[in-house]
Amino acid sequence: MSRAFVMEFCAGLPGAAWSEPFGPGTDVWKLGGKIFAAIGADAAGVSVKCPDVETAEMLRAAGVATKAPYFHKSWVMVPFAEGEAELEHRLRVSYETIRASLPKKMQANLAPAT
User: Fold this and answer.
1) Which of 22, 32, 36, 104 could be bridged to 98 by S-S, CB 3.0 to 4.6 A?
2) Measuring CA to CA, which residue among 88, 92, 50 is closest to residue 68?
3) How far is residue 82's CA from residue 45's CA, in Å, rounded to a whole number?
4) pLDDT along the chain (114 residues), means of 10
5) Which residue spans within the chain are E strands per DSSP?
6) Going edge to edge, which strands form the sheet with 27-31?
7) Residue 29 — φ and ψ, nearest 5°?
């Protein structure tokens, strides 16, 4: 798994927008202006938002993820080595978490996520 997999997967999510707000080489994916995935320039994984701090702590305790640098404690970094299925699941959960926090009108304007 790699940065390319994350970039391709995120590009397919309805309303997802890519940017480099922290400088070249740092890929950030947003939905409605809110970050749901970030990959640092030299990162070996992707930082994603969890639904809550408890889920993030559980993932870290299980060894599936580590603390996401520079983010709140509800964020984790999932190593690329975890595999496609885990990365896809965590990216989708992060995306859906952010999507659910958007205003209802904005949510209604997004195509359903497949």
Assistant:
1) 36
2) 50
3) 9
4) 88 96 93 95 92 97 94 95 93 97 92 80
5) 17-19, 27-31, 34-39, 45-49, 66-67, 75-79
6) 17-19, 27-31, 34-39, 45-49, 75-79, 66-67
7) -115, 130
